[in-house]
Amino acid sequence: MRIVLLCGGSGKRLWPLSNEIRSKVFLKLLKSTHGVRESMIERICRQLDEVGLLQSTCIVTHHSQVEITRTYVGEHIPIISEPHKRGTYAAIALAVTYLHERMLVDSDETICILPVDTYADSAFFQLLHRLPDILSRSKADLALLGTNPTMPSDQFGYIVSLLPGGKEEYARIHHFIEKPNERAALQLIEKNALWNCGVFAFRLGFMLKYLKDKVEPDQVDMWLDKYEQLANNSFDREVVEPNPNAVVVRYEGLWQDVGTWKALTPHCEQNVIGSGRISDDSMNTHLINELPYPIEVIGVPDLIVAASSDGILIAHKEKAHLIKERLAQTTQFPMQVEKRWGSYQIMNYWKDEHGAESIIKMVKIVQGNLTSYHQHENRQESLTILSGIGEVLMGDKLYRLVAGDVILIPAGIRHGIKAVTNLEFMEVLLGKELSQEDITRYSQTW
Fold first, then answer.
1. Superfamily of structural domain 2-257
2. pLDDT of residue 175 exceeding 80
3. Mean pLDDT of 188-205
4. How far apart are CA 324 and CA 223, in angstroms?
């Protein structure tokens, strides 16, 4: 069996800590078994490893998150890069084509699709091992996991099976209901409906035939070429819901959606993370502060106070999920970005009436790491070394820099930066359309 982790997200529900690049799955907020905070992606990789499935796992994510994903999962998990965000149908179709063409996976092998933000106990991941046998015995095209609802929630999809609840290993699926109101959800629970865990298993050959029947591409490069023109469709709507031959497997252990501040904070290691304090009468309030300035919270219960260089959120936990709707009305510019070689923080941004822009960044590169060898066509860079020792390869010349040194990198010049020791520098960018990607990478290493 092959596991495909769907990784990505717009970074809105856990704003301001999450953004377009550092989505919620990379936030190190969860309690771990080792006494240190871990992220959602680290947690699920650890759990897959514990049940012997990590070595057969690959990850699909948007190209802007490839570097940060690699930082969190290491070098041994294949990462499939999407050129555009186009929904779960496109992501899964790309993964299926990749597994078939590039990894030569047999068409009879079971593929299990799993959201990377799945929060469950070890028994959930152990259950995945049973899916190939269930597909074989049921002769179903698709097998899903469902769990018993704990309340009539309007935040989840529901699976209605043809059989009542009981000890059957699986049941035929009758239909799906997506995020009903609470009254309808209560009626569904009375009919033994299950929450949809977002897990799909199928034979690789099933999806290859599906794509062929839809006259979809059967090669990775062909998929990538048409990605920008694809509709933003879900796998549920395109493949699962119209299929009459699907079964659901009941899971009865811990499973939660921790994609909102209300759901996530009970799993945080502490009520205060970062600089600041919460008064004793501020019950069930959490403070998560990435800024260097202390925040004092006094006499207000049930709040989430979250602060980063992207902004500050102060919200009642019951209403914090509304931040996604508010952010949808604005254009977000990520101010804090993690890369495979380190991180950077945008300190300031200007744009004049003629469209000329400037950005000031504080950049940190971890000792021994280096950026890609690349060039920018529409911007020049000025680097001022603040601490550490670095090397800049510019054209065919190598410059060694220490604290206090300044170097100008004109537009159109190939360059790369390496940290001999931990390196911190201020970077000033001058040009136009600085928020757009303007980079050409080259294979040269040094």
1. Spore Coat Polysaccharide Biosynthesis Protein SpsA; Chain A (3.90.550.10)
2. yes
3. 93
4. 30
Q: Which of 50, 53, 113, 107 is nearest to 80 (CA)?
A: 113
pLDDT score of 122: 93
What's the predicted TM-score (pTM) here? 0.86
Got the DSSP string for 266-329? GGBS-SEESSEEE-TT-TT-EEEE-SSS-EEE-S--SEEEEEETTEEEEEETTTGGGHHHHHTT
Name the CATH topology of 341-442.
Answer: Jelly Rolls (2.60.120)
Are 436 and 357 contacting, i.e. CB atoms less than 8 angstroms apart? Answer: no
Contact between 116 and 72 under an 8 Å Cβ cutoff? The reply is: no
- In the predicted model, what is the mean pLDDT of the chain? 91
In sequence order, the β-bridge partners of residue 401 are 390
Residue owning tokens 């860079």: 381
Q: Which helix (H) or strand (E) holds 133?
A: helix 131-138
Residue 164's pLDDT is 52
Domain boundaries, the chain: 2-257, 269-327, 341-442
The model's pLDDT over 256-294, given as tens digits with 9 standing for 90+, comes to: 888 899 999 999 878 999 999 999 999 999 999 999 999
Enter the DSSP assignment of 249.
E
